[in-house]
Amino acid sequence: MNSPQKVREPWALFKSLIALLLIIFCLWGSQWQYHRGVDRHARNAVIEERIAKSSIELATVTANLPDNEWQTVSTIGAFDTDKQILLRNRYNDGKYGYEVLTLFRTNDNKSFWVDRGWVQAGATATTPPVVTALPQGEVTITGRLRLDSSLPRGSFFALPGQGEGLVSELNAQSQLDTEKFYIDLLTGSDSSLTPEVTAQLPELSDGPHMAYALQWIFFGGLVIYGRILIRRTR
Predict the structure, then answer these.
(1) Same domain? 21 vs 80
(2) What is the 3-state secondary structure (H, E, C) of 31-88?
(3) Separation of alpha carbons 234 and 230, rounded Å
(4) Span between the terminal Cα atoms of the chain, in Å
(5) What is the total count of domains within the chain?
(6) Model confidence pLDDT, tens digit, residues 9-21
(7) Are residues 164 and 61 in the same domain?
(8) Containing domain of residue 143, as a range?
(9) Cα separation of 105 and 111, whole Å?
(10) pLDDT grade, residue 159 (50/70/90)?
């Protein structure tokens, strides 16, 4: 007949293996949160550095877009008021509204979307928001350069248009081929171009990632302590 010690020994090894796997998972979680914190800090530092720079000509940065995202740029051209979309589900001070994006064509034949800022939604779901009219003809605009991959995710509602769709779908319907970047409008040669509420910057805090990394280490310590306590109790 097996002794109690021999019966308990496999279970003790199994429990130790489970504890070891939990500790490894906690260490992995801690490392994951740590690297997220490092990446976020680096991203914030890049954004802060670039938005602090003086405005430069858009034509000087289009050859190297990734290294110039968030840089303030200026260019000359005209808005195409027939090509305008409203990005839904955007909030400002707790109020529901839209982000207004209008197609812009430069004098050197580049076309891209310009984020003209936030506008409050209409009184009812069927009432379109009040969007500031654009000046006719050639204007100079100044804004932050943004990559297409950083466009806020959400649903688009076209006015006028054929319903809902992403920017790429709108381009396809309108037979457009825009640049792979857009601009957050800050100001322009006409006072009407300055948005009442400009497109928001991302939150430039490092977030709770480092605290979470320490939390995962603490959880790992609890697993070790629990395993020791169980063994002593036995």
Answers:
(1) no
(2) HHHHHHHHHHHHHHHHHHHHHCCCCEEHHHCHHHCHHHCCCEEEEEEEEEEEEEEEEE
(3) 6
(4) 21
(5) 2
(6) 677 777 788 888 9
(7) yes
(8) 54-193
(9) 4
(10) very low
